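Example record

The entry below shows one chain as it appears in the dataset: sequence first, then C-alpha cells.
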Amino acid sequence: MDREILYVFGTGNASVTNLYNTCFALRDSDEYFMVDAGGGNGILKILDNMRVPIESIHHLFVTHEHTDHILGVIWMVRMIATKMLKGQYEGDAYIYCHEELAETIDTLCKLTIQGKHYKMLGDRIHLEKLKDGETRRILSYDVTFFDIHSTKAKQFGFTLRLNNGMKLTCLGDEPYNPVCEKYVKGCDWLLHEAFCLYAERDQWKPYEKHHSTVKEACELAEAMNIPNLVLWHTEDSNVAGRERLYKNEGKRYYSGKLYVPDDESLIAL
C-alpha cells in the first residue's frame, strides 16, 4: 500500500500576502481529495509546482463561503470544465459543501465564467449538498462531514479513517467547539488553525476574529491525547521563522508531534 500524503497547498489566513491561503489535499494512490482552494488563481501555480494534475482531482470539499476559501474554487471549476471540453478530463467532478454554500458557488460561477464552462455544472461537475453528520464515500475513504458551529459563517469540517487505520480530522479554520467532540476524540491527526503565537495575541487579536493561538491549539491536542497536530491558517509576518517560533511555543503545551508546514510542502501520514 502506498503511504498516504497530505499535500499542503497554502497555510496562510485570509489577509496574508507572503503565503497562499490555507488549502490542501489528501493523496490516495494517484487521486486527490482536495479541501478548499484559497482565494484566487494562485492555486493553479501551486498545483503546477507540486505536480498535481487537475485531471487527477475529482473530489473537492469547500468548508465555507469566505473569500480565502471559495474564490479559488471558481478557478478550479473553470479549469476542470476547460479540460472536459477539450477531452482531457476523464469522468465527472464532485464539489462537496453544505446546502447554502452550493447556491453561492453556483451563483459565483454563473456570474464570472463563460457560459460554455458554467454549463458543465450539473452536467459533469456536480455540486453535492451535505448535511451535518453525513458520510460520503470519496476515493477509498468514508468521509463524515460535520457542522463546526461557527459563529461567523456556516462551516463544515470532516473526519475520516486513513487506509493505515489512523483517524484524521479537519476542523476548518475556527477553534474546536466541544459539541464536535465525537469527531475529534480518538484522532491520530488533527488539522487545526492557529492565527498567531499566544505571545503575540495582543498584536494580532485572534479572539476578535474567533481564531485561536498556538497555545490553545496545543493545549487542546494535549488534553485529547492527539499524537499528531498540524497548525496552519496563520499570519505571515515572519514566514522564515514561523516554524521555529511556533514549535518553541507549542512544545510548552504539547508533547506530541507538532507540524507547522510551509506552503507547497508534503506530510507523510
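Notes for this example: The radius of gyration is 18 Å. The helical segments are 42-49, 67-85, 99-112, 115-118, 181-184, 201-204, 214-223, 239-250.
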